[in-house]
From TrEMBL:
Bias-annotated ranges (Basic and acidic residues): 414-423
Stretch list, region Disordered: 408-427
Name by which UniProt lists this protein: Probable periplasmic serine endoprotease DegP-like
Record-listed substrate binding positions: H163, D193, G263, N264, S265
Domain PDZ: 309-400, 421-507
Molecular function, one GO term: serine-type endopeptidase activity
Record has S-adenosyl-L-methionine as a keyword: no
EC number(s) given by UniProt: 3.4.21.107
Length: 517
C-alpha cells in the first residue's frame, strides 16, 4: 500500500475491507480455537440461555466516592444472556480464482496498486484445498471461509452477511454449546449485504431485536463474534456516527469504534439494553485488520430484508431513478442556497419515478418525507428502507425557490429506460473561466447522442483547477442550457462567486463548480 499523507479517502488510499470474505478464515490456529470453545461451553453450561429474546440491560459500574457519577457499563449480563444466540459460521465453496488473490503469487506485478492487495495478501489461506490450483482447469478453487451470525427465531432462522456465504456450497453453523448444524441459505441480498440462513433445530435461544431510531452517537455498543475463528469474542466501543454513507453502498451504516476483525462479519451489535441494533459488516483499513473504523448494517434494514426473504425468497428494492452528487460551497453559491446541503440531481432516468414526478437535472433535493437531506448519500440511505410503490414527498430547490414534488417509487429490479438526454445542464464561460469552446458538429451530435452543448477544446485557469478537461462537453451553466459562447458568457457575467457547470464526460454527466469570484 502507498503511504500517502492525506485526509482524502480514496479506493487506493483506504481499503474498504470486508470483515469475513469467502476467502478468509482457513489459517487460524486450531488449538487456540478449540481451547476457547471449550471454555465458552463450560461457562455457558452454568448460565440459563434465554428462550424468548427478552433484553437484559448493561449495568453501570459504580464510581467510588461519587454517588452521582456513572462509570463504564458492565456488559457481563448482556454477554451471558445473549451469547448463546450468537453463532460461528463456516463455509466451503467453489469460488472462481480471484485475480486479486493471484497477485500475491506474483502473477501481476502491479498488485500494489490494487486497494484490496494488502487485505488479500494477509488473510487469504496459503493455498486452496481439494480444488484446482491457479491457472489450471476451470480456474476454480475450493475456498474456506468463516464468519458470525445470530439466531432471530427459535426454529433456527439466522441473520448474517451476504458476503459471508457468497458462492458457498456448504454452510455449517456452530452454536456456543458446540453443537453443529448444516445450514440452508434461504436467500441473500448483495445490495444490503444481508443473508438469511435456516438450520433444522427447535427451542433455540434468540437475540432481542431493537431499532436504531433511538440509538445515539456516543452511546456504548457491544459486538460478539468469531474474529479469526476465535468463538464468542466480545468487544465494545461507542457509536461514532449514524447514517454513514460509504462508496457503492446504499445502506445508512452505523459507524462505531468497536474492534471488528475478519470473522466478525455477520455478528450482532448490541446496545446497552441488550438489543441488537446492527449487523457488523465492514471496516476501513489499510492493513486488513481493525483500525478504529467499523460499520454495521442497521437492524431495521436487515429485518426488512429478512422478512422479504422468509416470505418470498427474494428481495425488492425501491428506486427513484436519479443520479445525485454532493452540494459543495461552490454549488451552493451558484444555486443561491443558504448552505451547501442536499442532493444535486445530475441525471434523471427517462420514464422512471423521478421523471414522472417532474424532477430535473439541476434540482437539489432538500427533504424527503420531512427528513432533511444533508449530504447526497442521505438520499440512497433513506430509500434503502423504502419499498417499491411507496410514495415520497420531496422538497426540491429549483430556480431559487422550493418546489414540492411527490413520487411513487419504482422497482430497482426493473430495467432502466434510456437516460434522459433532455435534462437541464450547466455552463462555463469564456475568459473568466479559462475555456475555449465550440458548438457540437451535427455528426458529433448523432454519434454521441447529445442534442446540444459546447465542446471544450481547452481548459485553463479556474476551469482547469476545478477539474474541467479538454474533450468534455459543456451542457449547461447554473441550470441554463447553453448552445453558444454568448450564452455562456451571459450566465457567467450574472454570477458573482462561482458557477456550476454540467459536463458530459464519456457516458457520465457531472456537475463541476468553478469559482470565478
Amino acid at each position: 500500500m502507498h503511504n500517502e499523507g492525506t485526509t482524502t479517502i480514496t479506493a487506493k488510499r483506504l481499503t474498504l475491507a470486508l470483515c469475513a470474505a469467502g476467502a478468509i478464515g482457513g489459517a487460524v490456529g486450531a488449538v487456540a480455537v478449540n481451547h476457547n470453545n471449550a471454555t465458552a461451553a463450560a461457562e455457558a453450561a452454568a448460565i440459563a440461555a434465554p428462550a424468548n429474546g427478552t433484553p437484559v440491560a448493561a449495568t453501570p459500574a459504580p464510581v467510588a466516592g461519587n454517588a452521582n457519577a456513572v462509570g463504564l457499563p458492565d456488559f457481563t449480563k448482556i454477554v451471558s444472556h445473549n451469547g448463546p444466540a450468537v453463532v460461528n459460521i463456516r463455509v466451503v465453496g467453489n469460488a472462481k480464482a480471484d485475480p486479486r488473490v493471484q497477485m500475491q503469487d506474483g502473477d501481476d506485478g502491479d498488485g500494489q496498486d490494487d486497494p484490496f492487495f494488502e487485505f488479500f495478501r494477509r488473510f487469504q489461506p496459503q493455498q486452496p484445498r481439494g480444488g484446482q490450483g491457479h491457472g489450471q482447469g476451470s480456474g476454480r478453487n475450493l475456498v474456506f471461509g468463516a464468519g458470525s451470525g445470530f439466531i432471530v427465531s427459535p426454529d433456527g432462522v439466522i441473520l448474517t452477511n451476504a458476503h459471508v456465504v457468497r458462492d458457498a456450497t456448504e454452510v455449517t453453523v456452530k452454536l456456543q454449546d458446540r453443537r453443529e448444524y448444516r445450514a440452508k441459505v434461504l436467500g441473500s441480498d448483495t445490495k444490503t449485504d444481508v443473508a438469511v440462513l435456516k438450520i433444522d433445530a427447535k427451542n433455540l435461544p434468540v437475540v432481542p431485536v431493537g431499532n436504531t431510531r433511538n440509538l445515539q452517537v456516543g452511546e456504548w455498543v457491544l459486538a460478539i463474534g468469531s474474529p479469526y475463528g476465535l468463538d464468542s469474542t466480545v468487544t465494545a466501543g461507542v457509536v461514532s456516527a449514524k447514517g454513514r454513507s460509504l462508496p457503492n453502498d446504499n445502506v445508512p451504516f452505523i459507524q462505531t469504534d468497536v474492534a471488528v476483525n475478519p470473522g466478525n462479519s455477520g455478528g450482532p451489535l448490541f446496545n446497552t439494553r441488550g438489543e441488537v441494533v446492527g449487523i457488523n459488516s465492514q471496516i476501513y483499513s489499510q492493513t486488513g485488520g481493525y483500525q478504529g473504523l467499523s460499520f454495521a448494517i442497521p437492524i431495521d434494514v436487515a429485518v426488512r430484508i429478512k422478512d422479504q426473504i422468509v416470505a418470498t425468497g427474494k428481495v425488492q428494492h425501491a428506486k427513484l431513478g436519479v443520479v445525485v452528487q454532493e452540494v459543495n460551497q461552490g454549488f451552493a453559491d451558484s444555486f443561491k442556497l443558504e448552505s451547501p446541503e442536499g442532493a444535486l440531481v445530475s441525471n434523471v432516468e427517462r420514464g422512471g419515478a423521478a421523471d414522472k414526478a417532474g424532477l430535473k437535472s439541476g434540482d437539489v433535493i432538500r427533504r424527503v418525507n420531512g427528513q432533511q437531506i444533508v449530504g447526497s448519500g442521505d438520499l440512497p440511505a433513506l430509500l434503502a428502507v423504502a419499498r417499491p410503490g411507496d410514495k415520497v414527498a420531496m422538497d426540491v430547490w429549483r430556480d431559487g425557490r422550493t418546489v414540492q414534488l411527490s413520487a411513487t417509487l419504482g422497482n430497482a429490479n426493473d430495467k432502466p429506460d434510456q437516460a434522459d438526454r433532455d435534462s437541464l445542464a450547466s455552463n462555463a464561460g469564456g475568459g473568466k473561466l479559462g475555456l475555449a469552446l465550440r458548438p457540437l458538429e451535427p455528426l458529433e451530435r448523432r454519434q454521441s447522442g447529445i442534442p446540444s452543448g459546447l465542446v471544450i477544446e481547452d481548459a485553463a485557469g479556474a476551469a482547469e483547477a476545478a477539474g474541467v478537461q479538454e474533450g468534455d462537453v459543456l451542457l449547461a451553466v447554473n441550470g441554463k442550457t447553453v448552445n453558444s459562447v454568448d450564452q455562456v458568457r451571459d450566465v457567467v457575467n450574472k454570477s458573482s462567486k462561482s458557477v456550476a457547470l454540467l459536463i458530459q464526460r464519456g457516458g457520465d454527466r457531472i456537475f463541476i463548480p468553478v469559482r470565478i469570484g
